[in-house]
Design goal:
alpha/beta; two-stranded antiparallel ribbon; two-stranded parallel sheet; 3 helices; 17% helix; 12% strand; globular
């Protein structure tokens, strides 16, 4: 078992991560499983609306029949995940690896309003159009952390472009970013 930026790399899920996932799920609280190792776990048939799996290892995880509407899998690895009959409406999947899944099908992504991006080039993009303001700092942090060392250039689209008719700064100006080089 190795570690990269604090993310565990192993062949199967970490028992303590799966235990914490089920503790959150059974208690009815918001599911926040950032950077969890749930590789090969059976999460089939569950309601995981707006669950946060940012940076998690979900390789070959069984999500068959699971409702993942609005879930965030930014920076997660979903390679080979079983997604048959899973509800993926409004899934957020920036910088997500999903080889061997329905997320490789552009028409499927569009039909389900899935925000998915992976760049074949050394540029990664985070588009914040339509994001809820209070979730932006967490999205940016997860995006920057998952991009570090993997991309030579990143782009963050704030949504305050040429269509902003006011002279005021956009709402995101409240969140200064300090990036150390």
């Amino acid at each position: 078992m190795g570690s990269l930026l604090g993310i565990s790399v192993s062949q199967a899920y970490k028992p303590e991560d799966l235990e914490e996932f089920y503790r959150q799920y059974n208690s009815g609280e918001e599911i926040v499983c950032q950077r969890f190792n749930l590789r090969d776990a059976d999460l089939s048939g569950l309601k995981l609306l707006k669950a946060n799996f940012s940076g998690a290892d979900l390789t070959k995880t069984d999500f068959r029949g699971t409702d993942l509407s609005g879930a965030d899998v930014t920076g997660a690895t979903l390679n080979g995940a079983k997604l048959k009959k899973a509800v993926l409406k409004d899934l957020i999947a920036f910088d997500t690896s999903a080889k061997g899944t329905c997320l490789e099908d552009q028409s499927f992504l569009k039909a389900n309003n899935i925000k998915f991006s992976v760049s074949a080039f050394k540029t990664q993009k985070l588009d914040l159009h339509g994001c809820v303001l209070k979730s932006v700092p967490g999205l940016i942090d997860a995006f920057l952390e998952s991009s570090y060392g993997r991309w030579s250039k990143i782009e963050i689209v704030t949504g305050r472009g040429i269509h902003n008719l006011s002279e005021k700064k956009g709402k995101l100006s409240r969140y200064p970013l300090h990036i150390a080089g």
